[in-house]
Design a protein that fits this description.
Elements: H1 2-15, E1 23-31, E2 34-37, H2 39-48, H3 50-53, E3 56-65, E4 69-78, E5 82-93, E6 96-103
Parallel strand pairs: 1-6
Antiparallel strand pairs: 1-2, 3-4, 4-5, 5-6
Length: 125
Amino acid sequence: MTKELVHQWFSLWEKGDFSSLPISENFLHESPFGTIKGKEAYIAVVAQNKDKFLGYTFKIHDGIYEVDKACVRYTATQGTNFSLDVSEWYYIKDNLIEKIVAYYHIGEIREERNIENYNTDTHKK
């Protein structure tokens, strides 16, 4: 059931049908942008920012599905110029998504946090 529910979430997003998302009234969404509390508030944020939320396709790379939670790693692509690699935890209650905790990078890495020689071939054996 959990896998089907999570895949329904992605399918509805691809269709742009965010008002039918299988989320509870107490839905909580945490991401690098902050936390949205409540289904009504979440739907309102999406409706006000359709250009940023709609028009995505999703490629699921990995998923771990348990009775009341799941973790999915995927790439979201919007148009030809934007993609985002995401890992999300889904928490299920009464056959609805009660909470999502999303992890992704939303900006440039600050200079002081950059790791020297990290993306080079010099360390390969």
